[in-house]
Amino acid sequence: MRLTRYTDYGLRVLLYLGMKREGLSTIPEIANRYAISENHLTKIVNELGRLGHVRTVRGRNGGLALGRLPAEINLGALVRQLENDMSLVECFETGNTCPITSDCRLQKVLGKALAAFLAVLDEVTLADLLVQPAGMMQMLGLDVPSNRPAA
User: Fold this and answer.
1) DSSP assignment letter at 60
2) CATH of the domain at 36
3) Distance between CA 29 and CA 26 in Å, rounded?
4) Does 87 map to a domain?
């Protein structure tokens, strides 16, 4: 299983906003810190906003912040929301044309593998990823408070 860049960048945005916590961030700021495209990030942030994961504030002093508490953002649910196609192979798709589908056991095995992958993500929230984030914060150029409360 490989997540799309769209989902990867969505996770990165949420991690960034979760680490920053206070104040608003901007798309150019986040794009710069991760060295990724602002245009691509704009589309992702719009989707995260539509889903309620990100709160956007318009205007001159506007920006982005988490739209919910980190403990309320489940990674399994998020991946399901951001990934537009979880078909690992053609036989998972409607209109499958593989000639061996009816007798092939690969579909069942890959289905179990995908379910296991998502089950692991279902056990994790953004808050779990933000425990002791000092190293990541330093790498992203964020201020690292000395006595930061738990997420």
Assistant:
1) T
2) 1.10.10.10
3) 5
4) yes
